[in-house]
Amino acid sequence: MTTDVNSLLRGMQAYQLGQATLAAMERDQVWPTPLNYEIWMHATANPDGPLALEIQRLLQKDKMISEATSDRLAVEFLQNRRLDDEIREAGDQLNRELDFVTSAIKKAQQSSLDYNSTLDRADQSLSLDLESKSLRDVIKSLSTATEAVRTENRSLEEMLERSTSEVQRLQFHLEQVRREASTDALTTLNNRKSFDDAIVHLCEQADATGQPLSFAVIDIDFFKKFNDTWGHQTGDQVIRFVASVIGRVAETPRFAARYGGEEFCIIFPDESAAAAETIVEGIRDEISTRMLKRRSTTEDLGMITVSVGLAQRTPKEPVHSIIDRADAALYASKRNGRNRVTNVGTAPLAQ
Ligand code: C2E
């Protein structure tokens, strides 16, 4: 049975849980960021739960957990992150409903127009010169009724038109909100959430077509030191710069995202790791040869480099496995001196 963390946090054991959480974070060597605190608190409260077991598995495998991995854990295991998914699903459903309503309104408008022209034609035939008074009276009243219906129809049409444009406005707004929700605000690359959806979808597509898929993780070297030296604003500019280089070469059908703080990733559908390696080598080279200046003082910011881990998916390989292999390749790049690409292809990385 799982423990309800929220009620624990308002009970006798709250501080005990807080302390145990911090101890666990220190033991597992993760930064005490708010997100990590939330993840480790849930894991500490439920030491046999799936989240705690996944953390153990990752630590046994890689000995450390990166910020990007924490993000993944949060999306996979924390309820409030899953809520985002549900909100998106509600948005999708609303969109489908709006489509349905728009087409129903359009259909209604069309039948109203058809009816009007039928009435028009009947009106013209009936106004021919006729002898009988009673027939003329009938025609007169029919004509009046027709005119009333036509006026009614016109106002109905106006209402339908207004509703259609309101529905279209709502759809446009919803689309904008969805775009914002899937975009990283600093870099305008895809954000972590849309990456999580995209990789699942693209792996399924690769399974269906039998085509290769490669995956690269790109991390800015010594970024924390850089931030400490030059400040967060300049750090943000560097993230924007790296993102812009990545974004330029990783256009659709490739999929580039900001994966975590200073970590990015690219999914290469239909491309082997050898082909993707040429691309990420180009990115690494472009970044390391550009002279960046601090905008406020024009001081030289020194060399910015990135390390890259690259893996090609084996057929039917689970999503977490290719991410883990690319992550391990990234750590190999770091260990071997940074500013380099490690391509493990389809092979597991030798320890
Ligand atoms: P940004 O400042 O919004 O600049 C967007 C794009 O405008 C740049 O894309 C570049 O094509 C052009 N641009 C802006 N300022 C200059 C300039 O002074 N000289 C030249 N030749 N072009 C300029 P790019 O290069 O891909 O950079 C993307 C983002 O990366 C920039 O967004 C900025 O946030 C950051 N960045 C790039 N280079 C530097 C730099 O030397 N210092 C700082 N602090 N940030 C930089």
Structure description:
This protein is an alpha+beta fold and 351 residues long. It folds into three domains: 73 residues, no CATH class; 100 residues; 152 residues, Alpha-Beta Plaits, CATH 3.30.70.270. Helix content is 66%, strand content 8%. It has twelve helices and five strands. It is elongated. The relative contact order is 0.08. Bound molecules: ligand C2E. Ligand C2E binds next to α10.
Could you name the key traits of this structure?
351 residues; alpha+beta; Alpha-Beta Plaits; 3 domains; five-stranded mixed beta sheet; 66% helix; 8% strand; binds ligand C2E
Q: What is the CATH topology classification name of the largest domain?
A: Alpha-Beta Plaits
pLDDT < 50 runs, ≥5 residues:
none
Give the neighbour order of strands across the main sheet.
Answer: 2-3-1-4-5
Question: What string, H for helix and E for strand, traces the elements in order?
Answer: HHHHHHHHEHHEEHEHE
Radius of gyration over C-alpha positions, nearest whole angstrom: 31 Å
Total count of strands? 5
Q: CATH H-level name of the largest domain... which superfamily?
A: Reverse transcriptase/Diguanylate cyclase domain
The number of domains is 3
Structural class: alpha+beta
Percent range of helical residues: 55-70%
Tally of helical segments: 12
* Small molecules (ligands, ions, cofactors) in the structure: ligand C2E
State the separation between the terminal residues, measured CA to CA: 37 Å
Examine the secondary-structure arrangement and name the CATH architecture of the largest domain. 2-Layer Sandwich
Residue share in β-strands: 5-15%
Largest sheet: 5 strands, mixed
Q: Globular, elongated, flat, extended or rod-shaped: what is the shape?
A: elongated
The whole-number mean of residue pLDDT values reads 85
Instruction: Return the CATH class of the largest domain.
Output: Alpha Beta
